[in-house]
């Protein structure tokens, strides 16, 4: 992909990556979070940039194992801001960023655990008064306190933005995939423990959290004034089953049928 | 056209009386051409009227079209008639406002936007005595003409030079201005790429804690706001049930779109004028990207080539014209016609495209596994008996190059027509 | 003159050889420590050489005879020359023996020369081309110089007139011969293989491979576990000095005969791997230098002379250009054809996996889909990333007995990751119907089963392998069963040969594991299965590497096919020389491009037999061979063939006696030829 080219003009850039605990969608095992890992990958491909990783959370064995996933990408240390399990990590992170004063903060768009509303980067940006952009695909160059970046849009499109540093950028799954996490460096990587007061997130207690229910599939609603039409729609045989096979047709007829399907599905732009 | 449905009791009587000499003609007239030739009898047995099957052709001979095309083609006529029956609603003095910021993808209300407006209507119309108004805020140019039908009472359209392009800071400052001036009870935004970003910016700006990934909103007398929402959390693994907050980022199909009423969509303006914003993000425009380079796993439209493709240039050209992502079977990759990262199947990439067109792929079991989660599969193949044809929702038996060439021609013609329509509009 | 010169020459050559030997030993000692029984090992050398090594060499009769004549002649001649000429022992009998030895060696060297005119492509050229001449020089020189001692020529004939010139020429020839044979043996000539090879046999890292006179199987194919607990230790092999010293010694023993190259499926497919070159590159790295002085076939597509290394420099660079390129290591299918063929018993696969371990565990650089597969294994316990709870979905209608319910069964059926593959599900269904027909008391682990760890281990991810293995061992320890039967030779091998090392006193991991073909054969022999007559076309059998070469099971599948009434049309490469399908060692995952595909070559082997059907016994082989474009022979697992031919005996006796009984007797007639 042409847009994943390494940027060369990021020498001396100080990049902080906020990383969180991920959970595998099928087995719920803890791991490095996919988008956060992509953010780390993005930071590591910025040539000459110094990269530091920051995690706010509880110090638990299982969590530590997951964070080691980031260390395995070739990172020496991760700064761990210790927080209680019900804490709102925004103040602690904002403080740490204010102290660390990185020029660029990268993180995933949305966490894989907890509320996962994806608001945290915006709250940090608001707290720090920094601009924030989403869907970072590549950093093209950094000069005079301005970064030229590419933003990923749906379906592989890109938009070029110029943004004033320091800034926060979120990375989603359209960013290049994270490199493999190697076992050796992951095991040897170190944690730097930072203490911070925990501000308890009061609202959480009022919420009810349960495993996700399957969302009901929307029925095709036919709102028609005529009962006959409504009946016809309701009694119509569900399509599916065996498909339609067109043999002995001219290429044009075949093409017309395919064209109709493509148009119905809305994939022709 | 009048919205009243006029009834002719005599004709209805004839339609019920199968022995009446004019029965068929009347039935055809009432049924909009679609003659009911099959119905449930009083004993629950399906009854058929063989005489009602088919239609009279141009030379007076009865023709029977078993493809179903004849009936389907005539169906829309009636639904248009039905649309006009929608109730017209105007809310002059709303008790409160529900603000909605639709995505307006492609300059029109998307289905996600319409669902969201449906949700807004639910919130606004909960108490018939004190109806709220739905305010939609639309940035930039648009081509939409059915704001009223979608359930919008007030429409704030922010247009002009200032609002073209990607301007998250200006947008959020404008919304902040709206909030200050109109103090909507709820802010509803689609949790999509565009709306999700704007909604989160707004939430951070207003200091409100939003509910993101909301897929259900129900009335709940016990909750503080009278509403309770269910939102997906932990990357879709959990459901969080909580009081509906002021800012709601909702998923598609969170509610049914408005269909029974029409609203005023009365344009309004910000009385305080627009805020001045010092932009720290500058939009330098879109960068051209080759659609074929989209990764297979993400692609929603894949044109996949296999052993049966002989003319590779025409295949590549077709993929370009259709704007499809290129895929390949293992054989095509092994033979060096396609790069390895384009391989679809159990040993390649598992794809989840909306439409998967398999050109000259016979459908080895490994390949079929890889396309399990595709919505619609189209096969173009010479061999009618191959597994891909069995799997396909639509199979065209014929020479791949010829069919592709015809398809390319058809799509090019379609594009041309569209262009003309656009120019005319 | 020669009387005085000869001892000087002999002893100075020996002294130089001794110096060279010390130098060589120090090169090997750069490697990591590895404890071996030194004295016992040295004592074993003659037996290991004459029995085990000769057994391998014997597969090529020509070279076996050549080597017996040359090496036997040389060893005898060298020892006698030291006694007769070095110490001046004037024994006519010994001199006659010495003459005989040199003649034998001379004949041998003629055979060597014939072998090399012209040399086949698998043989190295360069210095190796002068070897027959050097052998001749030594044998002729020693022969002539011994003639007077034996009394054939008068003593002193070389001291007069023309004799001086002859003596001078003779001395020169002897210097050449001694130089190659003694000096070159330890300083790095072609004869190095004799010195290093002998010690390699003594200190081999898999002494289990050698017979000990008590009979039985002598096979050691399981990879050795890597200690993961030590936080400071580097994992795997980064540089030549990271190999153990006896591995380095093993590399040095390579005689560059190229038998591995001739057998290697990746080399034949044009992938950038040549086992011989790889071993030579390790030797180059151990001594430091570039591969410019290598005179054999290069890695396909990679010219010789562009790679160099040092003992303490990296073997693989991310950017390439070090000793070897990563894709060379990832081309290997771990089929062990090279190890099986190697007359010096070098362990290529161990070395490759050691280097892969470093690339995966330390570099995090498993190519192509490797990283994704490993991530899946870590997160979902299967390489495809499927929901582990859906492991038994395919068998929803089969009502499989679960170990969790039964706690105890005669046979634990290990299903393997094939449960997620629709093709393999057919095989499993077939095998289950066979088990049911034979009324076997079996059970499956169901969702408790995990990937055996085979792929992870071959991809170098020892950590994931050990994690999977230990959890599987813990699960297995909860249940009682007399044997594990599996349709997957990879699981079979790992469970049988590689889990043992990871067992604990509480949960020992030495299981009685059988491949389904072995087990079916047992059922057939016990008369528990009755078959219809075979009606299909001709059949050939493809030996899976992990069943055949890794575990020596060549006969049971063939016996089963014979019991079905099938006469197997053997491929040229079958049995221990079976060609890999290309599916092992994670090769389909790392997917290094070559000129052609390994399964295509294997299907070509099938085509040569004219068989309509290939019987296989491995889900990987099935997938790889079925991936070959039609028209080709059909591919069926042995379990499928057996299930198709089964005559199910109804429990209801009356119903069967009238119908099935005649069928059975008829079958018997037809089956028996």
From TrEMBL, chain A:
InterPro entries: ETF_a/b_N, ETF_b, Rossmann-like_a/b/a_fold. One of its GO terms (molecular function) is electron transfer activity. Keywords: Electron transport, Transport. It comes from the Bacteria. Residues 21-202 form the Electron transfer flavoprotein alpha/beta-subunit N-terminal domain. Belongs to the ETF beta-subunit/FixA family. This is Electron transfer flavoprotein subunit beta. It comes from Vreelandella populi. The lineage of its organism: Bacteria, Pseudomonadati, Pseudomonadota, Gammaproteobacteria, Oceanospirillales.
From TrEMBL, chain B:
It comes from the Bacteria. GO terms for molecular function: electron transfer activity; flavin adenine dinucleotide binding. Keywords: Electron transport, Transport. One of its GO terms (biological process) is fatty acid beta-oxidation using acyl-CoA dehydrogenase. Pfam families: ETF (PF01012), ETF_alpha (PF00766). The keyword Transport applies. Residues 98-282 form the Electron transfer flavoprotein alpha/beta-subunit N-terminal domain. PANTHER family: ELECTRON TRANSFER FLAVOPROTEIN ALPHA, ELECTRON TRANSFER FLAVOPROTEIN SUBUNIT ALPHA, MITOCHONDRIAL. Belongs to the ETF alpha-subunit/FixB family. This is Electron transfer flavoprotein subunit alpha/FixB family protein. It comes from Vreelandella populi.
TrEMBL record, chain C:
Residues 245-275, 320-351 form the 4Fe-4S ferredoxin-type domain. Residues 657-666 have a biased composition (Polar residues). One of its GO terms (molecular function) is 4 iron, 4 sulfur cluster binding. It comes from the Bacteria. The chain crosses the membrane at residues 6-22, 68-87, 93-113, 134-152, 164-183. GO terms for cellular component: plasma membrane. InterPro entries: 4Fe4S_Fe-S-bd (IPR017896), 4Fe4S_Fe_S_CS (IPR017900), Csal_0991-like_N (IPR021872), Cys_rich_dom (IPR004017), HdrC_iron-sulfur_subunit (IPR051460), Helical_ferredxn (IPR009051). Keywords: 4Fe-4S, Iron, Iron-sulfur, Membrane, Metal-binding, Oxidoreductase, Transmembrane, Transmembrane helix. Residues 654-673 are annotated as: Disordered. This is DUF3483 domain-containing protein. It comes from Vreelandella populi.
